[in-house]
Design goal:
Elements (H helix, E strand, L loop, with lengths): L23 E3 L5 E3 L8 E3 L4 H7 L6 E3 L5 H6 L1 H4 L11 H7 L3 E5 L3 H9 L4 E4 L4 H14 L3 H23 L8 E5 L5 E2 L5 H9 L2 E2 L19 E2 L2 H7 L3 E4 L9 H5 L8 H4 L3 E3 L14 H12 L6 H16 L5 H4 L6
Parallel strand pairs: 3-4, 3-5, 5-6, 7-9, 7-11, 11-12
Antiparallel strand pairs: 1-2, 8-10
Helix pairs in contact: 6-7, 7-12, 8-12, 12-13
Length: 341
């Protein structure tokens, strides 16, 4: 997987895949889409994961209808604030027809909706970003389709630089002090498998992911691995991770405090040492598939190895991310994270 790519004035910009006409792109399910001649293509989406890509690629002013996971995005991105809605997760076909966008950006495992929207004459761009390689390919796809390739290359280059810093820190961490870890999902015993972004983030941050060999189960509609795998709490106890990170990308049916004070969990090493933590942030999840995975990996590294990525450096990186994405920084209390002393 290549993370390289320069913006305008630098190296060559990513072109069409081999065998595909130059004026076409191929989306996440293999559909060929003709690249619009216009550079102001209007966008609709009910897929919250699409929002960080839209913002990162500076496409918010083209959005006519959108779904976002929290009010944070609308409050801080003008184009999204003015956008309407055609549903949350599920497309309202009648509303979509009224808005009549030039393209619907949608999740890749919903073929029924794709067919229904195509029947309206509205192209559907399917995206999937369940691992880092797919994040990069989504940036390439949207960059070419919406005529913002230089910005896509800039975003990829920015992420490349950040993960290079993370990797250099890991090179200096002795193997004997590296932690074993898991990322737990919305329910106890549900974890991120090895084919998920969160497991990859653990490895990049310098942990030994205990779920690297666990694959997600197939989605019944699309045959695509699901985001989380239920291995059960007993299996998690047997793994005995040094660290447990809990996702912030979905609602939890438990709390970190409940785990730390539960007698059932008391023999787990992560509980013994108090290394059970909720991944930030309250409004902008740092482990949702997208650009913020940079912050998620950096935060994981800071929580496990603060001597290699101190709080002051992480805070500077957090400010840099929000400046890069939103053109401003935000107060930590507003974002909802606390690095402690």
């Amino acid at each position: 997987m290549s993370l390289c790519g320069c913006a305008a004035g630098g190296a060559e910009v990513t072109g069409a895949p081999a065998g595909i006409p130059a004026n076409y792109v191929v989306d996440a399910v293999g559909v060929e889409l003709a690249i619009p001649e216009s550079d102001d293509t209007s966008i609709a989406s009910v897929y919250a994961v699409a929002v960080p890509f839209i913002v990162a690629l500076e496409l918010a002013d083209r959005v006519v209808a959108v779904n976002y996971k929290s009010q944070f995005w609308a409050d801080n991105v003008e184009g999204l604030r003015e956008a309407g809605s055609v549903g949350r997760g599920i497309v309202d076909i009648e509303l979509l027809a009224e808005y009549d966008p030039d393209v619907l950006v949608h999740r890749s495992n919903d073929p029924r909706t794709m067919d229904a929207v195509a029947a309206l004459g509205i192209p559907v761009m399917s995206i999937r970003a369940e691992n880092y390689e797919e994040i990069i390919s989504t940036l390439d796809l949207m960059g070419r389709y919406f005529h913002v390739e230089p910005r896509a290359e800039e975003v990829k280059g920015w992420m490349d630089g950040k993960f290079d810093k993370i990797s250099k820190n890991v090179e200096n961490i002795p193997d004997e002090i590296r932690f074993s870890a898991v990322v737990m999902g919305g329910e106890l015993g549900v974890v991120a498998g090895g084919d998920m972004l969160q497991s990859w983030m653990l490895e990049k941050a310098g942990a030994h992911s205990l779920t690297r060999d666990i694959a997600g189960s197939g989605d019944p509609d699309g045959g695509i691995p699901t985001a989380w795998t239920n291995i059960g709490v007993e299996s998690l106890f047997e793994m005995n991770p040094d660290v447990i990170f809990c996702t912030s990308s979905t609602v939890l049916d438990y709390t970190v405090e409940e785990i730390l004070t539960s007698s059932a969990w008391s023999e787990v090493e992560a509980v013994k040492t108090g290394r059970v933590e909720l991944i930030p942030a309250k409004w902008d999840s740092w482990d949702i598939p997208g650009i913020s995975c940079v912050l998620g990996a950096m935060w994981m590294q800071n929580r496990m190895y603060p001597e290699y990525l101190p709080n002051v450096e992480l805070e500077a990186e957090i400010d840099d991310y929000y400046t890069f994405m939103f053109g401003r920084i935000f107060d930590k209390d507003y974002l909802g994270y606390d690095l402690g002393a």
